[in-house]
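User: Sequence in, structure out. Go.
Assistant: Echoing your sequence, followed by the structure tokens.
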Amino acid sequence: MGKRRSPILVAGCLTALLVLGILLAAVVAVIAFRYAGSAEPIDESGMHLTIPDIPDEENAYVQLQRAASLVEWKDDEYYYIQTMIDGTPEPPDLPQRFLESRQEAVAALHRAFECEESVYPEFEDPDGEVKKEALESLAWALWHDAERNDDTEARLQLALNLVDAGNLMKESCGPLFVFLRGARLQRHGLIMLKRVCGQDDLSPEALKHAIGRVAVTQHDAQSLSSSIRAEYWITKELVDEELGSRQWQFWVYDEEQNTRGMLSEYRARIDSAERFYCDVVIPPNRGERPFLMLVLGGNVIGDIMTGIMVPLNANSFAGLAYDRSNNSAVQVLLALKVYHMRHGELPESLDALVPEFFDELPRDWFDGGFIKYNREKALVYCVGADLVDNGGGDPEAKWTTTEDPSWSISFANVSGQSDS
């Protein structure tokens, strides 16, 4: 008579078989999920860029690059640009090469102002990315030159040229950092324009002309879309080059799956490029999902690496909304300056600026409404990322630290400028 099997042993065997069955089913499900839809061809339509061939002398980006490289001197020589920025007299023993470098840099900067097109050359930047510090230093040096010569017209023209040059950089079909460099250069031009508003020796005609120049630069959705497309191809090439040749790519990197995910994410950002901040929809970052979900997705390394490199999160779009609102605010400040010159007071509402200055008022790019105005506080403002109208904030605070990013109307005898 054979021995009877222990009930515990039988139960253990059945449990083990059940667990193995569940694991097998899970593996089959994950594989099915991973390759679901992979038979469909990858559609990259709408993601390609047509990049014109422009001679260097006509390319604003190349000229800005040259100007930056000419003022990026070694640390022990940097004092010269600082003396220009601080407005201090030039040292008597100033080497001739500094004077020549500055003249060449100014000439390159002005060539950039005169260029009508800008192209990031072949997605390469052989001299290093255009350094914002160098260009900003050069611009402020020229500003101080104009101040020393008491030349308000020169300051106005320099400010408008910087706004235009920044806009050309944004239009250069380069990756996102080029667009953001252009936005920063443009922001400095707008800071200068706000300071010009405090001067009394400009004609209403010159100020109205400036409004038109600034308004043209605000429509940057197409430029941002092009930069996101450029970023897509650069990121895809980097990820594929780094991970696609690895022998261990199975399960941790799937090129086709990674491309599909990137297309979805980049297209969502392109769609948001022309939206107000309140309407922006950004998909969750794949690289920030729970680790188990990353593993089960079958592209864990690809998801993490791509998640790090995909540009523009919600905070980035808040910054873009501020830059665009900053542009709106400066247009309104210029119009209010003309109104104040004529009437000796501020209007009751911004409606008084329509239709002479605007067909419709410039927008608050956070909530999609019109830019806002508080006559009692002498402020122009927007609502900020919380989308709550608090009646204006501190114009001296950075926009990220105040409830309502605000710009003071300095010519109405209210101190403070929102230059941050």
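User: And one key feature?
Assistant: Residues 224-316 form one domain.
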